[in-house]
Design goal:
The chain is mainly α and 119 residues long. The protein has six helices and three strands, in the order βαβαβαααα. The protein has one domain. Helix content is 50%, strand content 6%. The protein has a three-stranded parallel sheet with strand order 1-2-3, covered by helices on one side. Helix 1 links the parallel strand 1 and strand 2. The radius of gyration is 15 Å and the shape is globular. The protein starts with a strand and ends with a helix.
Length: 119
């Protein structure tokens, strides 16, 4: 999932729900270096590549505000999200992409993988 410091409380809740369900394989794409440094300092699996997102100066705002205002930075971030997912899929890794406002009440990974085998 993509996140910045504006979504820190949502991200903490999200990661807590993952942990409670035994899900420990995740990757946070930090949209700026400041967020990436904070996420890593907390021991979270964070990745940041400025070449994919460009100079996004939105660490203090939420992504929702960017969407509401139709800021170019938001559109750049959405394009980067698709590129990152493609890159991970090319590595042969399965991807379940979610937003940070999701709470897991059970581990859905086995069910999702089972259903994908039928496709």
């Amino acid at each position: 999932m993509f996140a910045n410091l504006g979504a820190l409380q949502l991200l903490e809740n999200y990661l807590c729900s993952l942990s409670e369900q035994g899900i420990n394989k995740y990757l946070i794409y930090a949209v700026d270096v400041e967020s990436h440094m904070e996420f890593q300092s907390r021991g979270w699996h964070s990745y940041f590549n400025p070449r994919l997102t460009g100079p996004l100066n939105i660490s203090k705002t939420t992504v929702a505000k960017q969407l509401k205002n139709h800021r170019p930075e938001f559109h750049n971030m959405m394009t980067a999200k698709l590129q990152i997912v493609q890159d991970v899929l090319r590595l042969g890794v399965d991807v379940l992409m979610t937003d940070v406002d999701i709470v897991f009440h059970k581990n859905v990974i086995p069910e999702v993988l089972h259903k994908c085998k039928d496709i």
